Amino acid sequence: REGLTIVIFGDAQHTEVRGLLGWAGEKGIATLDADAVRCGASAASSRIGIISQTTQRMEDYIAFVQRLAASVLTFGHEIRAVNTLCDATRKRQEAAAELARTVDAMVVIGGRTSANTRRLVETCQALVETHHVETAAELGDELLRGKRRIGVTAGASTPDSSIDEVENRLRGL
Fold first, then answer.
1. Phi, psi for 154 (deg, rounded to 5)
2. Which domains are assigned to the chain?
3. Is the pLDDT of residue 1 over 70?
4. Higher per-residue confidence, 125 vs 26
5. Which of 13, 118, 147, 151 can bridge 103 by disulfide, Cβ–Cβ 3.0-4.6 Å?
6. 3-state secondary structure of 69
7. DSSP 141
8. Mean pLDDT, rounded, for 113-134
């Protein structure tokens, strides 16, 4: 509406991002790679607005914005970045990171295609050995052998029954 090219930090195939691209029309670009956004001297790229898929990690979004800003501002153009990350998702990621710092391993429960769950896995993997499971059946005895403290977290849409099954399986190991 304001003549901005809209850069969406996110997975172009994700439902949310596809919806945003539909809204942005020809002025929308979705990418996870700031270098994929070409910022030359053309009017089409002179004014850029940056938003994010709501399930992305804050630190990844900040790094993306910084990298893109360095490129855009080299040409003296305008850039606007808006924090569109879901607050509940951000808090869940922060809580998972806090827990991961205190345990020997993490188990993240949730669908493998869930962007929310994948971000939790990435967050925990940066800190401690992490296992992504959809069901309790995926937890073999050898998987967590020698681990005394195991943390558990789950994606936002993971059913309580799946969480309960994994917790019960872990207690039995």
1. -145, 155
2. 5-81 (3.40.1010.20), 87-172 (3.40.1010.20)
3. no
4. 125
5. 151
6. helix
7. G
8. 95
Which pLDDT score is estimated for 40?
Answer: 52
Single out the residue of 172, 10, 168 nearest to residue 89, CA to CA.
10
Backbone region of residue 76 per phi and psi (left: phi > 0; alpha: psi in -120 to 50; beta: other values): left
Q: What is the pTM of this model?
A: 0.75
How distant is the alpha carbon of residue 51 from its chain centre? 13
- Let me know if 134 is a catalytic residue: no
Fill in the amino acid letter for 145: R
How open is the CA angle 51-56-60, to the nearest 5 degrees?
A: 85
Three-state SS at 63? helix
Distance in angstroms (rounded) separating the CA atoms of residues 10 and 67: 15
Q: Which residues contact 101 (CB under 8 A, 6 or more apart)?
A: 127, 128
What are the phi and psi torsion angles at 144 (to 5°)? -120, 20
The residue annotated as part of the active site, out of 2, 16, 122, 134, is: 16
